[in-house]
Each structure stands twice: as C-alpha cells, then as structure tokens.
C-alpha cells in the first residue's frame, strides 16, 4: 500500500512541476492572473471594512465581530484557493476530454482515472489568494490577541483541528465538483452546471447563523444536511475564531456531522464518477 501511495505522490508532484513550468513559460500572464486574484481579494476586504464601519458584528449576537469575521474570510480563501488551484482547471477540461476523445487515453493509463482527471493540471496563480489569506489571518489573530477587551489566542489543539477541518472542507468541495464534472459523460457539455457550482458554494461564504431564522431555515437545512456546503468554512472558522462557545454538548454535533458529511461526500463522488464512466462509449463509438 505504501509503495502505491508513494507512486501516486510522485505522479502528483510531476503534474505539479509540469504545470509550474507551463505557467512560468508565460510569466506575464501568470503575474496578471495573480494580481487579478489579489485585486478581487482587496475589494472584498474593503467591502467588509465598510460594513464594519456601520455595525460591530455580522448578525445580531452571532459573535462574528470584525477580527473574527476576517478569520472567517481567510478560511474561505484558504479552502477556495486550494480547490481552484488543484481541481477547478481539471473539472473545466473534463467535458473537453470527452468531446475530443482524450478520455480514451486517460482510461488506458495504468493509474486510477479519477486521480488522473482530478490532478493532471495545477493552476499555481490561484494560490495567490491563499497567500493573501495567510496575511489576513495573521493580522486578525494578532489583533485578537492584543485587544484590550476579551483578548484571545487559539490553542494548539484549535489550530490542529482547524487544519484538519479545512481539509474536510476541501474534500467536500472537491466531491461536489467531481460529481458535476462526471455529468459531462451523460450531458456532453455541462457548462451551466459549473455556474450552478458557483451559485451553491456562495452560501459557504457567510456565517451559518444568518440562515438559521425565518424562511432561511429551509436553506440552512438544505445546505447543511443535503448539500453540506455550509459546514465547509463555518466549522473550521468556528474552531479557530471561537465566535460563540458551545452552550451545550449537543452543539458539537456540527463538528461530528462535518466528518460524516466529508466521508459521505467522498464516497458519493466516487460512486457517481465510476457510474458515469460505465456509461462512457468513447468518442469514436
């Protein structure tokens, strides 16, 4: 098993190296893409700074004050940048592989097809937002630790859990993306479904407390239990920022559900992908 894992690790690093060489071949384009991503990030920071000029927290009694909410935003950029760097370029090209017959050659490779489809290309410029997230998280944590009222420093356990649940968030987002990509085999082209992915994942960019009232409770239930995108950012952000201490032991169900949702999402994506491949008849048939 270890030798097999090591083989996949070497293949992945080869893909990543080749992608970096390709990006460095067109360095000006690479720099422009990085600056574009950073510009979008700065506009978001400015937007929320304006909001906090008029309110002390996002949502009444939610606990998401300015510093803690910017930790939430940094978590969003960590997860989204990883998804966009490692999975988005490959998902976008999957329908083209089907149309041109490139999937035929992928199926002949002596390696798992889903792994090959998922990691064959890395968009290094998308990691610019990851670097921006590090800066914003560091500034927010420094301000939390040095403020006069209720200073806060996360524990080592909180940091470890934060990294683990960020990984769970990436796995959930990847699973949703690969499921949508696999539908290309049945539909031929599914560009509209990629727009659907962006619409759905927009719900993960905000604290889940804002949905848990009124008619928003239907969205809260849908995007927590059916399509679990609300737990993607909320759970790791809650662990690192501690916006609200659990009022009862039952509130830890959200942490447990995130682990269950991650496992179910990965298994479901594997099943959908393999089922879709069973319907593939190659470009020449």
Q: Any overview of this molecule?
A:
By secondary structure, the chain is an all-alpha fold. It has one domain (2-278). The protein is 73% helix and 0% strand. The protein has 13 helices and no strands. The chain has helices at 2-25, 27-51, 66-86, 88-100, 102-108, 113-119, 128-146, 156-182, 184-187, 191-201, 216-226, 230-241, 253-278. Helix 4 (88-100) runs parallel beside helix 8. The model has no long low-confidence stretch (mean pLDDT 86). InterPro entries: ABC-2_transporter-like. Pfam families: ABC2_membrane_6. The chain crosses the membrane at residues 30-50, 70-89, 122-142, 162-187, 218-240, 252-273. It comes from Rhodopirellula sallentina SM41.
Topology:
Layout: H1 2-25, H2 27-51, H3 66-86, H4 88-100, H5 102-108, H6 113-119, H7 128-146, H8 156-182, H9 184-187, H10 191-201, H11 216-226, H12 230-241, H13 253-278
Helix pairs in contact: 3-7, 3-8, 3-12, 4-8, 8-10, 8-12, 8-13
| Tally of contiguous helical segments | 13
Mean pLDDT: 86
Percentage beta strand = under 5%
The helicity comes to over 70%
